[in-house]
Request: fold
Amino acid sequence: MFQNSLNNYREMHKESLSGRDLEASILTRAAHMLRNVQENWEAPERDEKLLEAIKFNQKVWSLFQAELSDPDNPLPLNLKQDILNLSIFVDKRLFAVLANPCRDDLTIAIDINLNIAAGLMTKPA
Reply:
């Protein structure tokens, strides 16, 4: 019963968010998933949670890559290129963590997600 209420709230919350707010929310969730693994590194289910968090992060960044590659995307070219380069960096870092799990190597991806989310939550003047 509680889970259904929680899911309904999340769905309603998603529907009420603007594009920027939704992107910020998703990036924040991705960062928190990675941070949860980082903070519980010795947990028996770490590998499963790590894979889940990395897959979620990769989906998020893949969506950004697809959106930024769209010729109709209104962002300035240099900004699109910078974000695409950042997404490639995050992908490489996460693949490296999968190949050689290291708690500290998650920090940069967490920080990038949270910084981009914070920028998205800032209202343009």
Summary: Residues 12-16 have pLDDT under 50 and may be disordered. The two ends are 43 Å apart (CA to CA). The domain at 2-121 is CATH 1.20.120 (Four Helix Bundle (Hemerythrin (Met), subunit A)).
